[in-house]
Design brief:
about 35% helix; about 400 residues; alpha+beta; Alpha-Beta Plaits; elongated; single chain; about 25% strand; 4-stranded antiparallel β-sheet; 10 helices; 6-stranded mixed β-sheet; Aminopeptidase
Length: about 400
C-alpha cells in the first residue's frame, strides 16, 4: 500500500494554497452579481491549466455552478465530493483592511469570503491538482462542486441535486468546506422561522383604557419564549448542540400617541433529529396563546411559518471515511482530530437528503463569517489543503 503521506510531502507546495486563497479573495463574488461568474472563471482556468476536466452547469442566465473531476486510472472505486460555494455576502462596512485586498497580517488572510469560504475553496482546488498528479495510483474519482447562491436561496445546490438525481449519479462521501476551525462536524441543526402576530385594539394614547396594546402582548410573548428557551438546553446533542428559539425581529406601532393594535415577532428556530420542528412550533404557539389569554379581552394572536425548514443532518462517527479524515488530520503537525458541533446551517442538508453521507470540515472560525475584517488563518488554509489531499488519496488509493 502506498505511503500517501510521504508521496504528498514530495509534491506539496506550502505557498500555492495561500496564493490561490489571496487571488480568490481579491475577486468580488457577492451573491447574485457577475462576480460569481468571474470567480468561477478564475477557478476553471486554474484547473484546466493543470489538465483537469471542468464543466459549467447553468443555474439561471449569467449564473452557473462549476463541476470538476479527477478520475483514477485504476478503474471503478469510491467517489468523493468536495463542495463549497462561490458567492459571498455583500462587502459591508466597518473594515480596517481592504475587503478585496487579500492582505496577510500576522498569519491572517483578510477579506470578504476569506473564511466563508474561499480559504476552503483554495485548499480544494489544490487538492484536485495533487489528485491529478497521483491519479495513476487511484481508483474511483474525486469531484469538486462549487455552487452559486448559497448565501441567498440555495439555487445552485438545488440545481445540482436535481441533476444528480436525474443522471442517476452515485457519490459515496462528501465534505462541505464551511469554516469549522478544522474540527470535524458530523452535521448541523435544522433551521426554520416563524412569525407571530400579536393583535390588539387601537385607541388614542390619552385614553389607553379603551385600547389593547399589541406591543405589550408581544413583549409578554417574547419574555415567555426566552424563559422556555432556557429549558431546551437540557436536550443537547453532543454532535449538533442544543435546539434554540431566538427572537430576532419585532415590528409594531405607528406612533407614540397611538395604542398599537398590531405587533409582529419573528423567531429563528434550530431543530435536532430528536427535537423536531413540530415540537418547537408548539412551544411558540402555546407561549403566544397563553400570553393572549392572560391579557384578556381584546387580544389575539396569529402565527405562520416564515422560513421553510432545512432539516437537521447527522452522520455516525464510526464511518470509515471519518476514520480516514481523522487520521489525515493527525498527520498534519499541530493538528488533532476533534469533534465539535457546527453552530450554523449549511448545504450539507441538501447533500444528505440526496443520499450522500456528508461531513462539514474546513479552515476558519464561523464567528468570522460575514463580519467586518473577516479573516482566515493562513496556517489553517495550508493544513486544510494537506488534509483534503490525504483524505482523497487514502480514500481513492485503496485504504
Amino acid at each position: 500500500m502506498a505511503d500517501w503521506r510521504a508521496l504528498l510531502d514530495s509534491e506539496f507546495d506550502l505557498f500555492e494554497p495561500i496564493t490561490l486563497a489571496q487571488s480568490l479573495v481579491r475577486i468580488a463574488s457577492v451573491s447574485s452579481t457577475k462576480g460569481e461568474s468571474e470567480i468561477a472563471r478564475y477557478i476553471s482556468n486554474y484547473l484546466i491549466d493543470h489538465g483537469i476536466r471542468v464543466q459549467w452547469q447553468e443555474v439561471e442566465e449569467g449564473r452557473a455552478n462549476l463541476v470538476a473531476e479527477v478520475e483514477g486510472a485504476l478503474g471503478d472505486g469510491p467517489s468523493l465530493l468536495l463542495n463549497g460555494h462561490l458567492d459571498t455576502v455583500p462587502l459591508g462596512s466597518g473594515w480596517h483592511y481592504p475587503p478585496l485586498g487579500g492582505q496577510i497580517i500576522d498569519n491572517q488572510l483578510f477579506g470578504r469570503g476569506a473564511c466563508d469560504m474561499k480559504g476552503a475553496i483554495a485548499a480544494m482546488m489544490y487538492t484536485l491538482r495533487l489528485a491529478s498528479l497521483f491519479s495513476h495510483s487511484m481508483y474511483g474519482s474525486v469531484r469538486l462542486v462549487l455552487v452559486v447562491d448559497e448565501e441567498k436561496d440555495n439555487l445552485g445546490m438545488k440545481h445540482w441535486v436535481e441533476r444528480y438525481h436525474k443522471e442517476g449519479d452515485v457519490l459515496d462521501f462528501a465534505v462541505v468546506g464551511e469554516p469549522t476551525d478544522l474540527n470535524i462536524s458530523l452535521g448541523h441543526r435544522g433551521v426554520a422561522g416563524f412569525r407571530v402576530k400579536a393583535k390588539g385594539r387601537s385607541s388614542h394614547a390619552g385614553m389607553a383604557e379603551y385600547g389593547a396594546n399589541a406591543i405589550y402582548l408581544a413583549a409578554q410573548i417574547v419574555r415567555g419564549i426566552e424563559e422556555r428557551s432556557a429549558t431546551l438546553k437540557e436536550k443537547t446533542d453532543a454532535d449538533l448542540g442544543s435546539p434554540t428559539l431566538n427572537v430576532g425581529r419585532i415590528q409594531g406601532g405607528v406612533s407614540a400617541n397611538v395604542i398599537p393594535d398590531f405587533c409582529q415577532v419573528e423567531i429563528d428556530v434550530r431543530t435536532l433529529p430528536d427535537v423536531p420542528l413540530e415540537e418547537l412550533e408548539q412551544v411558540i404557539r402555546s407561549t403566544a396563546e397563553e400570553a393572549a389569554a392572560a391579557r384578556g379581552e381584546g387580544y389575539a394572536i396569529g402565527m405562520e411559518q416564515s422560513v421553510p425548514h432545512l432539516p437537521p443532518v447527522k452522520i455516525p462517527r464510526d464511518m470509515k471515511e471519518i476514520d480516514i479524515l481523522a487520521r489525515s488530520i493527525s498527520d498534519v503537525p499541530g493538528e488533532m482530530p476533534l469533534f465539535a458541533p457546527f453552530p450554523a446551517s449549511c448545504e450539507a442538508s441538501f447533500l444528505f437528503s440526496a443520499g450522500i453521507p456528508t461531513v462539514i470540515f474546513g479552515p476558519g472560525r464561523i464567528e468570522q463569517a460575514h463580519s467586518a475584517d473577516e479573516y482566515v488563518s493562513v496556517t489553517q488554509v495550508v493544513a486544510a489543503a494537506r488534509i483534503y489531499s490525504l483524505l482523497t488519496l487514502r480514500f481513492l488509493g485503496g485504504e
